[in-house]
């Protein structure tokens, strides 16, 4: 049976941003719902602009029934050109990858997105000329190599008004003052200094304008090898030990050059190993962590598990889910990265040793490890503004090549690697293990990962500060007095209104208590773990199950079988590290002290919200973290309204401007896909797609219960 919504009669035009141009369009395109084996869907218009691909149906014209968590820039039927991963055409029921010039045009178009959405369009009822125009237009604008200046980023910056909310606490690290303030905040200004040697980029175009080095390093040393071989400061621990990074010399060199470089490095090491500096431990990340190619290969395999075309595909992969997940090696890479961060934390915290991270460019895995260590050891980095400042410092100004690693220009797949996504996946592990320690939520991390592909922000679209500055100054000269301003992704008001932004903030964040005056004069101790009581029971269970809470049957039965994953620890940590790890986990958690992730066995999980949010079959009806969030936000709303009433009674005046939280009434009608998708149909069991299902039917709770309605009106919490 084919359910068809009649073609729309009224004209629906796309909402264009400043600088956005309509390039091609096709009418009478049929978009499949992509939920089950039926051909249900809706007719509409498919358009391609210099910013996005967009499907417009009659629902696009109305503002009724809008989701609470609405992105003002990218709608649910919009795909930015940078978010397109692969495009397939269907010819006589056979899928074929579409690239470059096309001789024959497909009857169906399947677009796989980097945020893991899948769009299915039927072009059988569309005029032939329009099919040619729209298919070749979409393939050309989203898949072929382009120049940097052709990015929509430049069109938008020239045309957009400069009236966005400037109130932003994020430190951008674009001035010398920002670096000096950070040195002062971490008490690193005794042994380290911010330098101006690279002003005008006379040392290197890869280095930022300003950075921090040990006080004993001379300007001549920095200039000698374009900044290579120079230890650059990342962060100082409370005990004085510091985290440093260094760009290594190329390995293929002639003997005389190698000898000179070795002598230079020996001199540097001797200088920074003497007092007042701590002992130095060097860690070459290129040999101790997976290569970028390994990371890219693992993620490519991993994401295929979630790019689901239809229900049948989902249930077919679900039967062998664990073996497929293990074969990708993605969770094992996350575990290895977290373990490396624990090693570095142990050197800084226990051994009082400076750690020098070494990598060829010091802009990939160095960024991951240094950021993770700071999130684990510095509670400021677990606040929203602190985390954003950290990304600015280590990644944006630090020179991570977002343009190449995300392959935004489709220049070279060899350079592509999801390094920043790897960091977000690692931070998510910490967020879900220690929710009260973070001011932001997993929804914040998911939205941040989506923002990688929105080219109206300059944050993730350049390889270095030099590249951004030179392109910006060139455009300003070109437009002369006209407006030209790159937006920062940290201005969340551009994408979300205040009600939606509430989902990015953690209502259960354990804010740092202000110290009493009597305590200020006392000496600063190391992390006071033994003196603080946990907000929740923090000791790990002695059982090696998927979850600590044996009572949480809903999560355990439905989500656990798909999300939890046991990983054998092939490389056991050394004794001192193991002792440090076990000792920390045997004590209560201080949410403002050191945080160590649990990395044994099934503790490393799949980031469910990011990877499963578009798959209706994987949702929990009325369940998941959103059920808890709904209850908490309802309670907060009630408390706020009571507070307003009390204030009114005291002042005999009506308070006008009250900060509201999202209304999430009737949480049983939501699902774990929220806030990215509204409640979908109940998951339908396949009609015996494989013989395996028959064997599993009697024993698997998940299969038996997947259509069961969960009533949240009782005492779920």
Automatic annotation (TrEMBL):
Superkingdom of the organism of origin: Eukaryota
Keyword Cytoplasm: yes
Record keywords: Cytoplasm, Sarcoplasmic reticulum
UniProt xrefs under InterPro entries: MTMR12-like_C, MTMR12_PTP, Myotubularin, Myotubularin-like_Pase_dom, PH-like_dom_sf, Prot-tyrosine_phosphatase-like
All copies of domain Myotubularin phosphatase, residue ranges: 173-611
Subcellular location: Cytoplasm, Myofibril, Sarcomere; Sarcoplasmic reticulum
GO cellular component: membrane; sarcomere; sarcoplasmic reticulum
Coiled coil: none
Pfam family, one: 3-PAP
Gene Ontology BP term (one): phosphatidylinositol dephosphorylation
Family stated for the protein in its record: Belongs to the protein-tyrosine phosphatase family. Non-receptor class myotubularin subfamily.
Protein known as: Myotubularin-related protein 12
